[in-house]
Amino acid sequence: MSVWRLPVAMLGCSLAFAQSPAPAATRVPKDQAAVSPLKRAALRDTDMREIKLGEDEPGCKDSMLFPRIAGCSILQCDTRDSATLEIQTGASQDGTPQQEVLEGPAEILYYLCPAKITLPSVVKQADAFLTRLGFKIVYKGRDPEEFPIVTAAKGDQWLQVSTYPYNIYSAYVLTAIRDTSDAERNADALAEEMSASGRIVISRLEFEPGKTDLPADAGAVLAGLRAFLARQPALRVRIEAHTDGTGDKAANLELSRARASALAAWLLANGVDQSRISTMGLGDTKPIADSQSEAGRVRNRRVEIVKF
After folding, report:
1. What are the chain's domains?
2. pLDDT digits 0-9 by tens, 10-55
3. Residues 120 and 74 sit within 8 Å (Cβ to Cβ)
């Protein structure tokens, strides 16, 4: 029996399957620059061995979070106590993928399916199952290689099913990760605040007086805001920036506009689609504290994220 090689998305090795030769695929991801990080690892030169198509990789079993698509076989499995993974959470209007970096315990399983199981049907089944389990569908569409993909979240648990073809067969990758990063915890807090009042006061985004640069220590705050927006893909927000009451009112107004634009630019550069964001500078017209004290001025130099 001849052996053909399957460049599946695996962490650290590729596999060969004992099968009769199959016709060449119309599109097979071979260029490492063109495939996702999860699939890129499969293209490394590693030892190959034969297993029979239809048999699971020894030692691998299905995820307790997500059953396999009926008729498919496990090619490889990888479980890690701690991992950092990029999960697709959307796509901009020009098709650029939006990614969220998650950290925490993860499992990744790779499957090969019969030809009768199409890539769209894999994602359709995954969508229906995740919805029944109470997961929120964060993104359903196409990955950077134009193959069907679906991403869902339930609390800090994320699941992604991504697909791709090989010859006459279908393949998919199940990625499950429980995000334990500070960004995720910050996102939870922001979600609660938005749900309660329709706005979020970013009190820890403290601009220096007269400055428009995002604070150097604002990394965790920014990551939490990005994670929050990734989990709310239909949410559109307005960034409202405020200044303290010192200085010229006209100058304060321009300063606040520039600060709102600075935050918007960061979000756009980090995967949030432009259609979801607008900005407004309000200067010192809406103080929440007395600007006669330094503590009050710090509170007034704030940014609010408003649902609209």
Report:
1. 53-178 (no CATH), 182-307 (3.30.1330.60)
2. 333 333 333 333 322 222 333 333 334 444 444 333 233 444 567 8
3. no
